[in-house]
UniProtKB/TrEMBL annotation:
The lineage of its organism: Bacteria, Bacillati, Bacillota, Bacilli, Bacillales. It holds the Pfam family Glyco_hydro_65m. One of its GO terms (molecular function) is carbohydrate binding. One of its GO terms (biological process) is trehalose catabolic process. The keyword Transferase applies. This is Kojibiose phosphorylase. Residues 15-267 form the Glycoside hydrolase family 65 N-terminal domain.
């Protein structure tokens, strides 16, 4: 069931309704960030109703103890989680002696807008107090020009006579995670100051038992006020500082508070207070209008490079732009130490850590839309954690490297066994990301300098994890969870076996004598890898002529998803876990994930048979699922299904498809809407080392266009009903393949008739 809170607009999320019932969903959808920090769409003046106050700083996390009564050898020592940081947007507002609270007050003409083109969150409304009306306008942004800077502009205008106002901007460090055990606090106060010119608050994460880094966060607040100030006071407690203004406002006179906050952390500097003051002083002569203009121009520049333009369907247009905006709000590659958390800065679910989503879904988009350094940094993030990945493998008694399912540092920090040490297919995706980067960029140097080290250790893991079946004389992998997390502890998951075998092949193809010597790869190892490649077992059904998801999948009661009722869905909220595990229903692409990864390994009929068998069993309750199905449906000519899956991935959060967006947005899967259009509708492929397109145009669209970076070129692609037009925006002549035919793209536009 879809749940739409905002109007359809190509560039904005707009609503005239203060939705108290779905306030958390509204907060998630209006989250903002700048890669360095971010927050949910909370109100500055506070809200006494149900809300999730959430502010998050990139790279700041806490190792929460995970040892429980059923703890087993091999379990992670802790569960890593992103932690809710100090609330620095707060402004207490008192009007004629009464505190402003939109949960209890009478509110008229409410307007809430997220302007994606300019990166601004705005609110306006009229509130009634003592039979008088007051106009409130609030604007907020997190600067992408000065990453440590947050700016809030808050305006109050009495409409029915003079008024006495109190505006009290504050910093509050007494915050908790919603998922904290027993209301545990993860912060302790370090320093606080309430001054006439500015105030600051410094907090530090509490000690932990795991020798992991403790983080310190410093917030420096400066306020500028217009209006007749009757009195000013300051106050502080260990976790709180405020500046309180008492103001006399005449009728129709607007009182404006501009609040600037600088956030510094121990991740970047030892002298947090000095660094914050230095930044604040550097902006002293920069007006609010200049700050806003610089921020807006920076966002517009990003969209100029990355925008996907859809003509004829504003709903589809809003979806792709919302997803690009939220991805770039989370990560734009400026800090090589960071990665992309599934919830970004929008919530605490999934711990805020790095998953395989980055390599599988986000990397292809960043390859095409950012400079080459950004995807290279994403790969180096994993290379830099190779030693930790080796520790993960040793912890469960295996050779090589096991990259974590969930991590901040490279050490596995997820506390569910079936995910942590069964969902090992993610190891293959780390290898696949190196292949994807190479075939897209042509950068062989990365492989020689860094990639081969990762490939060898992953191959060593696979070689130790398999076992040889005496009965069939085949290598097998038992006790795994495939991408379909609605099945645990299965044997011979086809995708896992396939990606493991492919990794061994790819490693051997790129292992030269120099690397073999440096990495101490013995001849016996190579011989075993070759034997595994030759004798790996792949479950296959002759009747259906499909790859079997795992050994016993076809023994289940097979029924299509159209037999489910509305009361059943989503399964993960309405069925017991036991019932889900026994069912045939698939959470996300599993066999189809492998076919998506390697489109040149399988013929059309194989793709079609497997898609037609597995898609009707798939409930798409993973946010990662619709994109893969959109791409494959496009490839086999199921265009209606492709468009349906695009709409689901593009508007997954905007329409709350899985009824869980109130917990935060599905950030990494947002790349899926871009994949659905570029790899799906436009048929872009680079896995063969050449640039290919095979576009189609959805019936309800008039046209669509996008830009990509490819090697040393920048290309614009326009797909219309009768033709496909390619324009070389930058770079030299290059070969492209359209519908299988080779063309040379030069300074003249390339126009090809659509099929």
């Amino acid at each position: 069931m879809r749940q739409r809170l905002f109007e359809i607009d190509p560039w904005k999320l707009k609503t005239k309704e203060l939705n108290k019932k779905h306030k958390r969903l509204q907060e998630s959808l209006t989250s903002i960030g700048n890669g360095y920090m971010g927050m949910r769409g909370n109100f500055e003046e506070g809200y006494s109703g149900d809300t999730h106050q959430g502010t998050y700083i990139a790279g700041v996390w806490f190792p929460d103890k995970t040892r429980v009564g059923w703890w087993k050898n091999g379990y992670p020592d802790y569960f890593g989680k992103v932690i809710n940081a100090l609330n620095f947007i707060g402004i207490e507002v008192i009007i004629d002696g009464e505190k402003l609270d939109l949960y209890t007050d009478v509110v008229l003409d409410f307007d809430l807008t997220l302007d994606m083109k300019n990166g601004l969150l705005t609110r306006s409304f009229i509130v009634q107090k003592n039979e008088k009306r007051y106009q409130i306008e609030a604007t907020r942004f997190l600067s992408i020009k000065t990453r440590e800077l947050a700016v809030m502009k808050y305006c109050v205008t009495p409409l029915d006579g003079d008024a006495e106002l109190v505006l009290a901007p504050f910093l509050d460090g007494e915050v908790q995670n919603e998922d904290a055990n027993y209301e545990e606090m993860f912060w302790e106060p370090v320093n606080v100051h309430a001054g006439e010119a500015n105030g600051f608050l410094t907090t530090r994460t509490i000690p932990n038992d795991f020798q992991t880094e403790r983080f310190t966060v410093h917030a420096l607040m400066e306020n500028h006020l217009t209006g007749v100030i009757l009195n000013e006071t300051v106050s502080q407690t260990p976790f709180y500082t405020e500046k309180r203004y008492q103001i006399k406002a005449e009728q129709n006179e607007t009182v404006t508070l501009e609040k600037r906050v600088i956030i510094t952390t121990s991740r970047d500097t030892e002298n947090l207070e000095e660094k914050a003051m230095e930044i604040l002083k550097s902006l002293a002569h920069v007006s609010y209008e200049e700050l806003v203009t610089a921020h807006k121009e920076a966002w517009q520049e990003r969209f100029m490079k990355a925008d996907v333009v859809i003509t004829g369907d504003d709903s589809a247009q809003q979806g792709i732009r919302f997803n690009i905006f939220q991805l770039f709000s989370t990560y734009y590659g400026e800090d090589a130490r960071l990665n992309i958390g599934p919830k970004g800065f929008t919530g605490e679910k999934y711990g805020g850590a790095t998953y395989w989503d980055t390599e599988a879904f986000a990397l292809p988009m960043y390859l095409a839309l950012t400079n080459e350094e950004v995807p290279r940094n994403l790969l180096k993030y994993r290379f830099n954690q190779l030693e930790e990945a080796k520790q993960n493998a040793r912890k469960i008694g295996l050779d090589g490297a096991l990259y974590p399912m969930v991590t901040f540092t490279g050490i596995e920090c997820h506390n569910e066994w079936e995910i942590t040490f069964e969902e090992i297919h993610r190891n293959g995706t780390i290898a696949y990301a190196i292949y994807n980067y190479m075939t897209y960029t042509g950068d062989q140097n990365y492989l020689n300098e860094y990639g081969i080290d990762v490939l060898v250790e992953i191959s060593r893991f696979w070689a130790d994890r398999v076992h040889l079946s005496d009965r069939l004389s085949k290598y097998m992998i038992h006790g795994v969870t495939g991408p379909n997390e609605y099945e645990n502890n299965v044997n011979n998951n086809w995708f896992t076996n396939y990606i493991a075998t492919w990794t061994l092949k790819f490693t051997l193809e790129n292992l030269d004598q120099k690397a073999q010597t440096r990495l101490h790869v013995r001849d016996e190892e190579i011989q075993k890898w070759q034997d595994i490649i030759k004798r790996m077992y792949f479950p296959y059904d002759e009747k259906w002529q499909i790859f079997i998801q795992h050994d016993t999948f076809l023994d289940k009661e097979l029924r299509a998803t159209d037999t489910l009722t509305e009361a059943d869905l989503p399964l993960n909220q309405n069925w017991s876990w036991d019932k889900i595990l026994r069912s045939c229903f698939i959470k996300q692409a599993d066999v189809l994930q492998g076919i998506y990864y390697f489109p040149n390994h399988f013929d059309f009929d194989t793709k079609q048979r497997n898609f037609e068998f597995y898609e009707p069993l798939t409930v798409h309750e993973s946010s990662l699922s619709p994109a893969i199905h959109a791409v494959l449906a496009s490839e086999i000519g199921k265009y209606d299904k492709a468009v349906e899956m695009y709409e689901r991935t593009a508007r997954l959060d905007l329409d709350n498809y899985n009824q869980d967006t109130e917990d935060g947005l599905h950030i990494t899967s947002m790349a899926g809407s871009w994949l659905a259009i570029v790899q799906g509708f436009a048929g872009m492929r680079t896995t063969s080392g050449k640039l290919e397109f095979a576009p189609f145009l959805p019936e309800s669209w008039q046209n669509y266009s996008f830009k990509i970076n490819y090697r040393n070129a920048r290309i614009e692609v326009l797909v219309e009903k009768e033709q496909v037009r390619l324009k070389l925006l930058k770079g030299t002549e290059l070969a492209v393949f359209i519908y299988g035919e080779k063309y040379l793209l030069s300074k003249e536009d390339l126009i090809v008739t659509s099929k």
